[in-house]
Amino acid sequence: MEPTIPNGASLIVHRQQEIANGKVHVICRGNECYVKRLYKQMDGSVTIHSDNEKLYREINAKPDDPDTLHVVGLVVSVSFNI
Question: Which one of 1, 38, 49, 77 counts the least CB within 10 Å of its CB?
Fold first, then answer.
């Protein structure tokens, strides 16, 4: 999630499954976990957005997607060394 969250930063995550639209979440999809910004769509899908747009493209996760999106929680605090 660079430049918003530097690599190696520590996160405090509020465990919740509901999406806070436009906020940063910890999610799992398939066998991988990520820190991404989520946007709920009217059709029930979720847009998974990385703040590092140069390296990662947006993904639209549909409710019937075989790699089901699991929201672990909302990132509420970030700490890192300068």
Answer: 77
